[in-house]
Design a protein that fits this description.
disordered N terminus, 7-stranded mixed sheet, 6 helices, alpha/beta, about 35% helix, Nuclear Transport Factor 2, Chain: A
């Protein structure tokens, strides 16, 4: 009886792990990490949050899962016209690649080549802080001088791989947070931010 019970439990655990793994879509490529680093370097210049709080930070907290709940206000815009209004120089295929990649979340690994000290934190760990009622006070106890945490999307590219679109979300308090779409161009010097657009603020 114990033998059969162990077999059943083992089967359940295997199925659960397979189900969990199948909820993630692929892995971010090296080129995506290059884009992430360009965006973070632009928006967290030196040791300071440059785009909302201006807070100084000693360690940047990055959530380990990409977010897919990004384009709710733009989902009905199937031809990408809203994105094109935000980014007039948007290349063909970028929006479609962005949407395809962001249908499912991806797990990130610490492949960030940043001068800024950073830590990759499991999404479940961050959620637990808030679900347990600790809220931001508890978050900052665990991650002092972090200036909050960021969530990234997968990166959409054009066919020539010289233009990229990514979303970055920064949470820093109950009424402290922003979401940006960022357009980047690639030259011989690597990826550079061309334009960023704030799509929400709290």
């Amino acid at each position: 009886m114990k033998k059969y019970l162990l077999q059943i439990v083992s089967a359940i655990l295997i199925l659960a792990s397979l189900g969990s793994a199948s909820s993630f879509q692929g892995e971010a490529s090296a080129e995506e990490y290059a884009v992430y680093c360009a965006v973070i370097t632009n928006m967290f210049a030196g040791d300071r949050v440059t785009f909302d709080t201006q807070s100084k930070i000693k360690v940047l907290v990055i959530e380990d899962q990409t977010s897919t709940d990004l384009t709710a206000s733009l989902d009905s815009d199937q031809d990408g016209q809203s994105f094109k209004r935000i980014f007039p120089t948007l290349a063909e295929g970028v929006v479609n690649d962005y949407r395809v990649k962001n249908k499912e979340p991806a797990l990130l690994k610490d492949s960030f080549d940043l001068k800024l000290k950073h830590v990759l934190v499991q999404k479940q760990e961050i959620e637990k802080v808030f679900n347990d009622g600790g809220w931001w006070q508890e978050f900052y106890k665990r991650y002092p001088d972090s200036g909050g945490f960021i969530i990234l999307s997968r990166v959409g590219f054009n066919a020539g791989m010289n233009q990229a679109l990514v979303y970055i979300q920064h949470g820093c308090g109950g009424l402290c947070g922003t979401g940006h779409y960022v357009l980047l161009e690639k030259s011989l010097d690597g990826w550079k931010v061309s334009k960023r657009s704030m799509v929400w603020i709290s």
